[in-house]
Write a structure and sequence with these properties.
CATH superfamily of one domain: Tetracycline Repressor, domain 2
Helix content: over 70%
Oligomer: single chain
Distance between the termini: 61 Å
Strand content: under 5%
Largest sheet: none
Order of helices and strands: HHHHHHHHHHH
Length: about 220
Amino acid sequence: MPSQTFFNLSEAKRKAFLETAIEEFAGRDYESASISRIVATLGIAKGSVYQYFEDKRDLYLFLIDYAAKERVAFVSGVPMPDPQQGFYRYTQWLLEMGVRFALEHPRLNQLIYQAMFGTAPFRDDMLQRLRDSSLQLIRDVIAQGIAVGEIDPDIDLDMTTYLLNVITNEFGNYLASKLAIDPQRLLAGDQAQLDNDSLRSVYSKALDFVWHGLAKRSTAH
């Protein structure tokens, strides 16, 4: 994580550093990304980076944490549906916000895709950080469902949060396969393959499963 020296930088210098580092790591895999290019773009000494971060890995993990927090802040900053519309609509909105984030913050989203699909030697550590960042948000969604009377208040909240978190974080892999989305094209910044109607259709089926489970549904007569 960053040293105090990094936080002592002026806001303008921190912003410039973050934007340049995100651009570098979002556009390349971990091995190809270069500290030298970052400092050359910024016009600073290479040693400055190592006053801010221990090494390249430390910088990259910080950027992943930063991107994950920005995604949560983005979702939290958009007006939520009226709770009276129900848990199902609220959860659908949450998934759709993920798509909006991808379209409105492509570089941060590319950085997250690099963590999910890239070849960094510590990929498991990055995936765990991304999972952890979404746990509280999912817990809040479930708690709201309980508060409005749509979810059984006797459920195991911790276990349910964990299971939905697993589904949420692994759902991207299924979505990519189902809709023939090429992660490498996303890494290159190509958002054209993200069709909102197709995405919503898959989301709806996933939400039906979460809501109704595996039990056979009764047929109306």
